[in-house]
Design a protein that fits this description.
two-stranded antiparallel sheet; 50% helix; alpha/beta; 12 helices; 6-stranded mixed β-sheet; single chain; Rossmann fold; 324 residues; 8 strands
Amino acid sequence: MGELKKLKIIKGEIEMNQNFMTLNGSQATKLINFLKKINYPKEELITVLNKELVEFDKLIEFENNLPLAIQKVNMNWLLTQISSTIFKNYEKSISKGQAKALIKRILGIKLANTERTQLSELRKKIRRYEKFLTYFGAWGKEPDQVFKVIIIGLDDEQSNKLSNVLLRPKVSGNRDTLGVDFYIKILESYDKSLTTLHFWDISGDKRYEFLREHYYKGASAIILIYEKGNKDSLLLTKKYYEEFKKATSLKFKLKKIKNIQIATPVVLVGLGAKPIMPSQGGPHLAIELGARYFDKTEITSEEFDDVFNLVSLELLVKCQNQLL
């Protein structure tokens, strides 16, 4: 074999090894922490890893297994997937290349000249936005309407997953000590107005039963969640509904016009992998309560966004009809 051919083979092997570099444990942890800070949906990361690592299909449902799974995949492939999702989630305000270069800088990976240029362009863009936000940020974020929405029926493990689909305010509660936790979601409505939903995630624990009446007051809507196939969970849902009805009369008032009472939207969500029982389960109870019914498998942005959008839309329409 000629020397030139040997050199080409060696060069090809080096390039192949470089193309299949993996992250170490420390880098995997740094990546996870960074993704949490930018509110990157954990379920999307799990989906991406599951596609590449079938053997992790069950393991990486739990957060402790994520670093191990991340270390098993091709680094370049993974960063490309994550960068594409960031590009999409942030509405193209950061390019895929800028996102990838930023992650590599955080992980301590040497940047190419092109990547350093991309980070430089990102810094310039950030400085422009900082100036813009200084003068106009508060105006742009000021909501046209704010509604309090009750969520009840989740256990502690399910409640913790809400942080993957909703934002925590700077000051939040604690279901373990107060029986309630707080989340927010900001939505732009069909009429281009901005709606802020303040979610009160209330514990169904008997210890906090005496507090629930106080937590219900002032609510504009309620989302009741039960475990599909569980009759006890369905009975508890009806109990929560009766508590809420007694505390609010299923009416709420607008702050601007206090003499007008508006009917409270009620939503019932069947959660879990078990099949629904239309004649005797959640759909039947939803008809009885006059509630909208949703069938959901798990708590993710993809599954619950339509629930939150419906609540926002119903509240907005009900309020506008009263003001006409």
